[in-house]
């Protein structure tokens, strides 16, 4: 069992890339900086280790991953403290302990998922069966918002399917991913799974390297496009989990008090830095003022501060750059006549990248806060009078990751949900992902599915045996 101190010591170096504590804006540790030579060495080691791993039975691979899940569970408090320190999300609430728990939960769900050969033709004359074979080497590139959990979404199904993995975490949050791999690797053959902490050049090198049969990427749409271009010559298989601008539609039949907490966490989980968070809220005019009042009461009461303090449930933004994005969008909203109901005035003299939970009403859909992904704690609340109009407005823009419909009539809510262009639509909640339910975007939010049996298929190559 690791302590925070022992885990930190295992993944840091004396002289490397500073890792910033977002609650203070100061470096608290130094991460190794992998070079392109390190990438070549990791690829060689992965290629050497992969055939024997693929030759194991599925049950043997599951047993190794199960031991890895137990290992992480035993050290999950240490991992949670590292996540809270590095990424900023609070230990409490749906925060760092929740993320460390999700690492274990997703590993176990990936182990438990059955992927059987599928007989697709068997008519007495012909027989055809679909199998999923290992790809070989999978490259994985990740973001900074849920670093350890998203890394697990990438490496767990890839390893289960018999592949080797070389992973590059975000340069802002390398330590929690290195720590996760440090624990997992106690139960895997040497060289099979390597995490290389490095900057975007390392990511570019993975994107264009012909050794990778697949690259799985979670991050911004712009980077996803760059990876697609870089990998085109190799015809590399891709899963692209990109940004979102999730709409929520509140129908007139809701009880505003009953839905307010679900709406709040849908938007403000991880201080808004969540791909499938609620990012623009369309509320029917009959209930608009009540929904705003109930949400404002919750938003103004939620304690925000350093993630390592137990009493907080909202933390800082992870990077100074993201603070700047949120600040620009809220200032623009004010200039366009938006009314800030709560928040909107960060303490610029205070240390760290804290931006208060902010609600803005009275904007039109052309405001940047509505059109762009804020990826932070500032929610625009938009009034509508006709559900058809709300659906049309929800479907504007490039993004298509998640959405939600809020109603006391589930049948009506499902009718509206079916007409929203998004990979996942939740009814009376938002962003409540489940490890057995496939997750992925449409339109500009990318393509490919993670989780469950579809997630396993995405980490294999299909082969059809005739006969
Ligand atoms: P980003 O695209 O800036 O960076 C993601 C990763 O890509 C980092 O590791 C970075 O070093 C690397 N990278 C940068 N340029 C690269 C290049 N040219 N080639 C290869 N790799 C490169 O994204 P971010 O700011 O870390 O993450 C935030 C974004 O991620 C938001 O848009 C968010 O919605 C999205 N996101 C999506 C999901 C999802 O499941 N769909 C989940 C989490 C975050």
UniProtKB/TrEMBL annotation:
Aldehyde dehydrogenase domain spans which residues? 17-459
Q: Has UniProt tagged this entry with the keyword Thylakoid? A: no
Chain coiled-coil ranges: none
The record, for InterPro entries, names: Ald_DH/histidinol_DH (IPR016161), Ald_DH_C (IPR016163), Ald_DH_CS_CYS (IPR016160), Ald_DH_CS_GLU (IPR029510), Ald_DH_N (IPR016162), Aldehyde_DH_dom (IPR015590), LUC3-like (IPR044086)
| Keywords (A to Z) from UniProt | Oxidoreductase
Q: Spell out the catalytic residues.
A: 241
Give the transmembrane ranges.
none
What Pfam families does the entry give? Aldedh
Q: Does the keyword Nuclease apply?
A: no
CDD domains xrefs: ALDH_AldA-AAD23400
Q: State one molecular function term (GO).
A: oxidoreductase activity, acting on the aldehyde or oxo group of donors, NAD or NADP as acceptor
Q: PANTHER family given for it?
A: ALDEHYDE DEHYDROGENASE-RELATED
Task: Report the family membership.
Answer: Belongs to the aldehyde dehydrogenase family.
Write the protein's name: Aldehyde dehydrogenase domain-containing protein
Look up and give the organism this protein is from.
Agrococcus pavilionensis RW1
- Print the organism lineage: Bacteria, Bacillati, Actinomycetota, Actinomycetes, Micrococcales
């Amino acid at each position: 069992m690791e302590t925070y101190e022992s885990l930190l010591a295992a993944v840091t170096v004396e002289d490397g890339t500073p890792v910033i504590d977002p609650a203070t804006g100061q470096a608290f540790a130094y991460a190794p900086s992998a070079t392109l030579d390190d990438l070549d060495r990791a690829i060689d080691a992965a290629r050497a280790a992969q055939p024997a791993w693929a030759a194991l039975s599925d049950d043997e691979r599951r047993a190794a991953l199960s031991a890895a899940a137990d290992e992480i569970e035993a050290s999950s408090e240490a991992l949670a403290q590292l996540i809270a320190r590095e990424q900023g999300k609070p230990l409490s609430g749906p925060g760092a302990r929740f993320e460390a728990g999700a690492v274990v939960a997703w590993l176990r769900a990936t182990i438990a998922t059955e992927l059987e050969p599928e007989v697709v033709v068997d008519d007495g004359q012909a027989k055809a069966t679909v199998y999923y074979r290992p790809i070989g080497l999978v490259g994985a590139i990740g973001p900074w918002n849920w670093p350890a959990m998203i890394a697990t979404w990438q490496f767990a199904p890839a390893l289960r399917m018999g592949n080797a993995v070389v992973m590059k975490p975000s340069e802002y949050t390398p330590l929690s991913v290195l720590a996760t791999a440090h624990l997992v690797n106690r139960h895997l053959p040497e060289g099979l799974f390597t995490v290389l902490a490095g900057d975007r050049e390392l990511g570019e090198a993975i994107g264009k390297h012909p050794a990778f049969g697949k690259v799985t990427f979670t991050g911004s749409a712009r980077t996803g496009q760059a990876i697609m271009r870089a990998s085109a010559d190799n015809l590399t298989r891709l899963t692209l989990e990109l940004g979102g601008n999730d709409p929520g539609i509140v129908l007139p039949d809701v009880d505003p008090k009953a839905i307010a907490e679900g709406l709040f966490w849908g938007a403000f989980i991880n201080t808004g830095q969540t791909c499938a968070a609620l990012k623009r809220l369309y509320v029917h005019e009959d209930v608009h003022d009540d929904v705003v009042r109930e949400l404002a009461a919750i938003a103004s009461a939620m304690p925000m501060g350093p993630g390592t303090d137990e009493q907080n449930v909202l933390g800082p933004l992870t990077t100074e750059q993201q603070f700047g994005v949120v600040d620009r969008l809220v200032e623009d909203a004010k200039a366009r006549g938006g009314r800030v109901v709560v928040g909107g005035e960060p303490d610029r003299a205070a240390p760290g990248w804290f931006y208060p939970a902010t609600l803005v009403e009275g904007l039109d859909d052309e405001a940047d806060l509505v059109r762009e992904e804020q990826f932070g704690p500032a929610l625009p609340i938009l009034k509508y009078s006709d559900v058809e109009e709300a659906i049309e407005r929800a479907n504007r823009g490039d993004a298509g990751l998640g959405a939600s419909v809020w109603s006391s009539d589930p049948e009506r809510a499902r009718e509206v949900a079916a007409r929203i262009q998004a990979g996942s639509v939740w009814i009376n909640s938002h962003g409540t992902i489940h490890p057995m339910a496939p997750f992925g975007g449409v339109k500009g939010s990318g393509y490919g599915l993670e989780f469950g049996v579809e997630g396993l298929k995405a980490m294999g190559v299909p082969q059809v045996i005739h006969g």
